[in-house]
Design brief:
This protein is an alpha+beta fold and 153 residues long. It is 35% helix and 26% strand. It has a single domain, classed as Aminopeptidase. Strands 1-2-3-4-5 form a five-stranded mixed β-sheet. 22% of the residues are buried. One of its GO terms (molecular function) is acyltransferase activity. Its EC number is 2.3.-.-. Keywords: Acyltransferase, Transferase. Pfam families: Acetyltransf_1 (PF00583).
Length: 153
């Protein structure tokens, strides 16, 4: 059983859309609009400044993904890389897929001289919190606030 990580390609968009929809449902019971979701995923490929996706293949089968976006830190004069839209297909869970994705992102971030990695996790998702802690991430002392605006047409 091998896990390989590669940059996502446009041909992966159907997987990325499917996995994002599944992740939103599994973690928040939130049904995403597939048209908006496909437009959002495609926009990352259209504008690389937004970030990039990585795809994990488990025994040659696309089995998971994550998105990296950037946050400039004026305090540190560098970018934090935010890990978002993490999903591992059910059949590949507990097989090291996320661990491999994380290791790849960490290596890329260090090579790019990012100042660190960040992610957010649902407060009730204890399994994910244990996973992130096990990879050496620390829970920070910030709360996250949000003001969501209606979608532009």
């Amino acid at each position: 059983m091998t896990v390989t990580i590669r940059p996502a390609e446009r041909t992966d968009i159907p997987y990325l859309v499917q996995w994002n929809a599944a992740m939103a449902w599994e973690t928040e019971q939130k049904a995403l609009d597939p048209v908006v979701l496909e437009r959002g995923v495609t926009a990352v490929f259209d504008e690389p400044r937004r970030g990039f996706y990585l795809v994990a293949e488990h025994d040659g089968t696309p089995s998971g993904c994550l998105l990296v976006t950037y946050e400039w830190s004026d305090w540190r004069a560098g970018d934090f890389w935010w890990i978002q839209s993490v999903y591992v297909a059910a059949a590949a869970r507990r097989a090291g897929v996320f661990r491999s994705l994380y290791a790849n992102v960490e290596q890329r971030a260090r090579e790019a001289r990012a100042v660190g990695l960040r992610l957010y996790v649902e407060t009730e998702n204890a399994r994910a919190q244990r996973t992130y802690a096990g990879l050496g991430m620390d829970r920070c002392h910030y709360f996250m606030y949000e003001a969501e605006f209606p979608a532009a047409s």
